[in-house]
User: Fold this.
Amino acid sequence: MANPKGQTKKISKEAEKVVGETVEAVPEKAEEVSAEVEAPSTPLEEVLGQAERAYAAFMDAQRQVASAYRANEQQIAKAYKRAEQHAENAYDEAVREAMRARDESVTAALKARDDAISQAERAFKKTKDQAEKECEGRVEEAKKRREEALAGAWQLREETVVQAWNIYAKLSR
Assistant:
């Protein structure tokens, strides 16, 4: 598919060329026409006068066509500029929207990260406190069993000493 802007420029240049050539020739033809129009005496001169007027009208129409092509080219250029500006505005808006979405995502990710760290720290503290309590409970239980074992051993020693003295006392008698 051909580029409409390039075609418009090509048509416009061709029209300018034709218009330029015809504009140069118009003053000469106009003088000839006006001289002959003033005194149409023969049918041939009348026909020539009509032909010259028709030619002048044709040249005027050609100038109008060239002018219309130039106006069309200007309108196309303005439409292109509007479309270009619209595309630029749409791009800028899309970039702003993408950056806003990125910023929101990063903010949400940072908040989720902070929440996860906080939750992990709370779970660690809870587990650590629970482990400390269990350790203290086991240490207390072990201490209690040790004291009971020592008390039992002391009791057994006392009983054994008393028994030994009793046996010695029986033997010594």
About this structure: The mean pLDDT is 84. Residues 4-135 form one domain.
